[in-house]
Design brief:
The chain is α+β, with helices and mostly antiparallel strands. It has seven helices and five strands. It folds into two domains: 127 residues, Alpha-Beta Plaits (2-Layer Sandwich), CATH 3.30.70.1730; 43 residues. The protein has a five-stranded antiparallel beta sheet with strand order 2-3-1-4-5, sandwiched between helices. A hairpin with a 2-residue loop joins strand 4 and strand 5. Helix 1 crosses helix 3. The longest helix is centred in the C-terminal third of the chain and has 41 residues.
Length: 174
């Protein structure tokens, strides 16, 4: 018969492993000296974006990260750490974490994993400063639309010149 602590460790490790494999991205955050109310506010705001925050013992987290082949991330798991799993849009999650960390400097984003790519603090800031998905789509559409607009203006100018020329010929003949 297994001890309760062993069952807890196995369940936690399985939950972390499944969450990492099923999420778009995950972030490692340090939350020392963060009040309980702030922690709950962070969890609520993350939940609204389809993300969740999970706190686990460091030795369990390091073992799971090592099993998944992300050895570089094991060095980031020190002290009071938590994992943020993003099921939907990693950019939106990173924006929430970035703005929260700006307001509460005791929350530190250490790094994480985006799809299969590991990233650092500087990569995280770049990700957080990206425009939203809707803005990027709008910018792409605008870029595709610009050459067509220019073509229409050129053709319109040529047509206008032709009409002006024909109008002048008509006025000369009268």
């Amino acid at each position: 018969m297994k001890k309760i602590s062993t069952i807890f460790k196995e369940t936690s490790a399985k939950r972390i492993k499944d969450s990492i494999q099923n999420s778009q991205a995950f972030f490692i955050v340090k939350y020392s000296k963060l009040s309980g109310a702030d922690f709950n506010n962070l969890r609520k705001s993350l939940k609204s974006s389809g993300s969740n925050l999970f706190v686990v013992r460091n030795n369990i987290a390091k073992r799971v990260l090592k099993d998944l082949g992300t050895d570089k991330l094991t060095a980031l798991v020190e002290g009071s750490c938590g994992f943020v799993f993003s099921q939907s849009d990693p950019v939106e999650t990173s924006k929430i974490l970035y703005s929260f960390a700006k307001d509460k400097p005791t929350l530190i984003i250490e790094g994480g994993l985006l799809k299969d790519r590991q990233f650092s603090k500087s990569d995280f800031e770049t990700l957080a400063k990206l425009p939203s998905r809707q803005v990027l789509i709008g910018q792409s559409v605008q870029l595709m639309k610009a050459p067509i607009n220019k073509l229409v203006l050129v053709l319109k100018g040529t047509l206008r010149a032709l009409v002006t020329c024909l109008d002048q010929i008509k006025s000369k003949k009268q």
